[in-house]
Design goal:
The protein is built from ten helices and 16 strands. By secondary structure, it is of the alpha/beta class.
C-alpha cells in the first residue's frame, strides 16, 4: 500500500510517496480504499511544525477521504463492504492517515455516498462543509448582514451560500484578488471587498448601511480580524475559526471596553467537539441534498496525484487556489 509519509518537518518537498504494509481493520473499524483525500491548510502547518500541536513522526497526513469499503472488523455490519462512503477521520478524533491508498476508520463515522455525489465533492463537504454548516448554526444569519472573510476558500465559498440559504439579509464577501471577488459574487454575495487594499473596512460599512455586519465569520486573523471587530455592528457576533495564528492578533483593553458597551460577542469555533456519529450523518446528508438540489455549489481547487502532494501543498500555501484541493491515487 502506498501512502504519503512525513518523516521530517519542512517545505512541500519533504512529503514522500512510499510503500507500506497493508492495513487490517480492528474490531469496530472499516477498511476504505481511498479514491480522494482532502488537503486542508492545517495539513500544511503540521508539515512545517507550525500547528498548535507537533505531530509525531513519521506520520501520514490527511484527515478526510472518500472511497469504497473493502473490509470490516468484528462488530461492523458486513453490508458496508462494497459501498461508496465518506470517511471523515477528523470526526472520530483521528487527524492522520488520509493521504494513502487505504485507511481504517471507526465505522460509526462512515457515511454512505449518494450516486449524485462524486468523491471530490464528498471530500469537500466533510471538514469544510460541516464547518460552514455549523458556523451558520452557531451564529444564525437569518435577517442579518453578514461578513465572510477568505470568501473564495473552501469554507468561505460554502458560507456565502449557506448564509444566503439560511435567510441572511445581506452577504458581504471579503477576499484578496479581483478573481476571487468575482467568484464570491457568482456564489451569491451581495457586495464584495478586497481586504488587501486600504479602506476595505469602510467599504463593508457602506455595504451594510453604515452599521457594520451583524455577523462576522473570520478565518484570516491578524489585522483583518482586528478590523472586523472594529466595524462589527452593535449586538453583533463574530466567530473566529480555522488555522489562525494567535501571535498575529492582539485585543486591547480599549477593544474590550468597546465590545462590552456595544453588547458585542466574540467567539471561537472548533468543529470536532460538536460532532458525534449522528451529527456527522445528519450534517453530511443535508449538505449532499443541497448539492443534489442545485442549491449549493462546491468549488474544485485542484486535483493532484499522490506523487505530486508537495505541489498540492505549495498551491494551497500560495493562496492561489479557490475551493477544495484534493489528492487522488496515481493511475496504475
Amino acid at each position: 500500500m502506498k501512502s504519503i509519509v512525513l518523516d521530517r518537518f519542512g517545505g512541500p518537498d519533504v512529503l514522500a510517496l512510499r510503500d507500506g504494509p497493508a492495513l487490517v481493520p480492528a474490531a469496530g473499524q472499516a477498511l476504505v480504499r481511498v479514491a480522494a483525500a482532502g488537503v486542508n491548510f492545517a495539513d500544511t502547518l503540521m508539515r512545517r511544525d507550525a500547528y498548535v500541536v507537533t505531530p509525531p513522526l513519521p506520520i501520514v497526513l490527511g484527515s478526510e477521504a472518500a472511497g469504497v469499503v473493502t473490509a470490516v472488523g468484528d462488530g461492523v455490519d458486513a453490508g458496508w463492504v462494497g459501498r461508496r462512503v465518506a470517511a471523515p477521520l477528523f470526526a472520530s478524533g483521528v487527524h492522520f492517515g488520509g493521504y494513502a491508498e487505504a485507511l481504517v476508520i471507526d465505522a460509526r463515522f462512515l457515511v454512505a455516498l449518494p450516486d449524485a455525489i462524486d468523491d471530490a465533492t464528498a471530500v469537500a463537504l466533510q471538514a469544510q462543509g460541516l464547518s460552514a454548516r455549523h458556523l451558520v448554526i452557531q451564529a444564525d444569519p437569518r435577517g442579518k448582514s453578514v461578513l465572510v472573510t477568505a470568501a473564495a476558500g473552501g469554507v468561505g465559498s460554502l458560507l456565502i451560500q449557506l448564509a444566503r440559504l439560511a435567510g441572511a439579509a445581506t452577504v458581504v464577501a471579503a477576499a484578496s484578488s479581483a478573481a476571487k471577488l468575482d467568484l464570491a459574487r457568482s456564489l451569491g454575495a451581495d457586495a464584495v471587498v478586497d481586504y488587501s487594499k486600504p479602506g476595505w473596512d469602510d467599504a463593508v460599512l457602506a455595504a451594510t448601511g453604515g452599521t457594520g455586519p451583524d455577523v462576522v465569520y473570520d478565518s484570516v486573523g491578524g489585522d483583518v480580524t482586528k478590523r472586523c471587530l472594529e466595524i462589527l455592528a452593535p449586538c453583533g457576533r463574530a466567530l473566529l475559526y480555522g488555522a489562525l495564528n494567535p501571535a498575529e492578533f492582539t485585543l486591547s483593553g480599549t477593544d474590550l471596553v468597546r465590545m462590552v458597551f456595544k453588547n458585542q460577542w466574540l467567539g471561537g469555533f472548533a468543529l470536532v467537539p460538536l460532532l458525534d456519529p449522528e451529527a456527522v450523518r445528519t450534517g453530511l446528508a443535508a449538505l449532499f441534498d443541497a448539492v443534489a438540489r442545485g442549491d449549493l455549489t462546491v468549488l474544485a481547487g485542484g486535483t493532484f496525484p499522490f506523487s505530486r502532494a508537495g505541489e498540492a501543498h505549495a498551491a494551497l500555501e500560495s493562496r492561489r487556489t479557490v475551493g477544495k484541493v484534493v489528492l487522488v491515487p496515481d493511475a496504475g
